[in-house]
Design brief:
Elements: E1 18-21, H1 33-43, H2 50-53, H3 61-77, E2 86-90, H4 96-102, E3 108-113, H5 116-126, E4 133-138, E5 151-157, H6 165-178, E6 179-191, E7 197-200, E8 205-207, H7 210-219, E9 222-229, E10 239-247
């Protein structure tokens, strides 16, 4: 699978479920559909609640949304969006980010998630805000193709760790093509400390170091225009950063 919109991992206290993968910048995370199948199996057992989406850390919902909204307000004030009509929430789950982060800023929000039950249950969670949803897609991000020249914002939160390096780059290349002129891609994710990638055997996901993440984004033909840290998370959590990206100019 590929979702990590809904999990915020604590730093590993032992190696029972989290393994340090000795990958340097010149290495790559291997391919293989087995990891996607394992991740999808894991997430198919998770409850369709905010606590489920956040891996048991529901208390982080408030500070997460607060900093995400601050970022969007900042980008709007700097006129870094040409329009704020349509957004895409990647790894949307039941719509936590859709409802509280994106809908206050964009007229319409599309949702994509690999777990069909999350998408099905999003209608109840969104309530009256369901009317602001455009399209809902049940698809893994490794296979998902956004509409071309369609979105003003593509938001990718806590999900990149479920993509292999090759699929990561290909996905963001497709996202780049999905942006309207003047649009932005925003990636919000956990970052490993040091040079090694952390692998979580429970949900089959990777947490990449900051420079590793930035290299892959650059490989996808994107320019990093903002790199901001999430504040007010408890100690003992992975660092979370927000990368604002635009396609490279030809």
């Amino acid at each position: 699978m590929l979702l990590n919109h809904r999990i915020i991992k604590q730093l590993p206290r032992n190696l029972s479920t989290t393994t340090k993968v000795l990958l340097k910048m010149e290495s790559s995370i291997p391919d293989g559909k087995e990891i996607y199948e394992k991740s999808e199996t894991y997430w198919s057992t998770i409850n369709s609640t905010v606590n489920g989406m956040l891996g048991g850390f529901e208390k982080l919902h408030g500070p997460d949304v607060e900093d995400s909204r601050k970022l969007l307000s900042y980008l709007r004030s700097k006129k870094l969006f040409s329009n704020m009509d349509r957004a895409l929430d990647c790894g949307a789950g039941i719509g936590r980010v859709t409802k509280y982060t994106l809908m206050p800023y964009f007229k319409t929000v599309d949702m994509v998630d690999v777990i069909g039950s999350f998408i099905e249950n999003s209608k109840k969670y969104l309530g009256k805000d369901e009317e602001k949803v455009g399209n809902k897609f049940v698809c893994g991000l490794q296979d998902f193709v956004p509409y071309q020249n369609y979105y003003d914002c593509i938001w990718v939160q806590w999900v990149t760790g479920y993509l292999t390096d090759n699929d990561f780059v290909k996905f963001f290349e497709r996202c780049k093509n999905g942006l309207r002129d003047g649009g932005c891609i925003i990636v919000k994710d956990n970052l490993a400390s040091g040079e090694n990638v952390d692998f979580d055997e429970e949900d089959s996901s990777w947490t990449r170091p900051r420079e590793y993440m930035k290299k892959l984004l650059i490989d996808a033909g994107l320019t990093i225009i903002e790199d901001k840290k999430q504040l007010n998370f408890p100690k003992g959590m992975y660092e979370v950063r927000m990368f604002v990206l635009k396609p490279n100019k030809l």
